[in-house]
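re the bet — no i am not wrong, look at it urself. input seq straight from the record:
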Amino acid sequence: MRDRITYCVLAAVLVVYFVLVGGRGVALIGQGTPVTVGLGLSVLVMPLIGVWFLWRTTQFARDANRLAAELEAEGGLPVDELVRHPSGRVDRDSADAVFTRRKAEAEDAPGDWRVWFRLAVAYRDAGDTPRARKAMQRAIALHDGKPVRA
């Protein structure tokens, strides 16, 4: 729940920022000189990219949460079996062992979104966020019946 609140607050701050920057871009365009119009258009590009990125990230989080809820209802969420240091950090060897097992499951059942979801969690626990995101995207695509790249 805390993560959701943090995400919503940061998203709201970004939206305010996009509005302020967009206003500056419109003001520059309103000056009417070729230089200010060019600058105004380039300033407007940044909030547009930011809004697109925020939308895609929100959509990804919503889809991942939807899969997590479905997997939880089935009783298939991965159990936290990681060894942690006294500081709370995950032991690297423990994360690697769980990752190796999850990767083998995904190789055995490449069309099952559940194993890809669990692999994404293992990637995240191992500290590999880019691969965790790709595995989760694959789980979402498989769940929704969308084509998946090999």
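see?? Helices lie at 2-31, 34-74, 92-108, 113-125, 129-144. told u. also The mean pLDDT is 91. so pay up
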